[in-house]
Specification:
The protein is mainly alpha-helical and 67 residues long. 73% of the residues lie in helices and 0% in strands. The mean pLDDT is 82.
């Protein structure tokens, strides 16, 4: 491939990293909720919400990784 054509069409197109950031923040929030619920040992829906946020973060990461 000529040099000029290679400059016009890069080998690695730019990726959108916003889903990755969202996945990391969602998983971090879920982890904080789980740690807070374990420290407070309350029987509420907070641990369930933490687990759901961790799963959602994993789903977002899986979508971003294999898009």
């Amino acid at each position: 491939m000529p040099y000029r054509r290679a400059l016009l069409r890069p080998a690695h197109p730019t990726r959108d990293y916003m889903p990755l950031v969202l996945a990391v923040l969602t998983a971090a929030l879920g982890t904080l909720l789980l740690v807070g619920a374990a420290a407070g040992s309350s029987s509420s829906f907070i641990p369930l919400i933490g687990i759901l946020l961790l799963v959602l973060g994993g789903v977002i990461f899986y979508y971003w990784r294999y898009e």
